[in-house]
Amino acid sequence: MPTGVHIRDARQQLFDAATRILVRDGANALTSRAVTTEAGVAKGVLHRHFADFDAFLVELVEDRVARLGDQAATLLASAGTGTVSGNLTDALLDLFDPVAVGIVGLVVFRNELRSRLRTTAPGIPVLADAGAMIADYLTRECELGRIAADADIDSLALSLIGAGHLLFAGAADRPDAAAVGKMVGTITADVVQRRLL
Description:
Layout: H1 10-25, H2 32-39, H3 43-49, H4 53-66, H5 68-77, H6 84-95, H7 98-109, H8 111-118, H9 127-143, H10 153-169, H11 177-194
Helix pairs in contact: 1-2, 1-7, 4-8, 5-6, 5-9, 6-11, 9-10, 10-11
């Protein structure tokens, strides 16, 4: 790209390029050169907006985590409607899109990125935030009497997120609603059934 050409919203253009690479080629293909080439900009553009490549990646991850706010609000609003299993299945299908799965892989793959992210939040971003989202929802369903009052909410949330991530990250093809629903139903069966006793 010629120098001196104004780039509209360069940061978003770089984020979009990075997510395309991440989904298409995986975390090991994500380099500053690959991102700027994919975005169609000079390499200096990235360094004009970010201190270094890991700072860029931190903001890419934080941007993705910020998007969970809408998903969390939607899931919490679904409490008391439909079925617990159905609501969780829908939430996990939304959560574990190819970009989110790629972001988790990126955090695991890059030690420096993981180290920088730990200064602001514990755990693996996206997974930890999704766990909190699921726990909030389960707490609300417990308050509504739709799951057992003595349910171990934190363990359930971790189980759903861990199993969900393994299901999506390990699959050659994206799991369908039936596969996700089966996993959710298995994990939540006890607490849903015991509330009826």
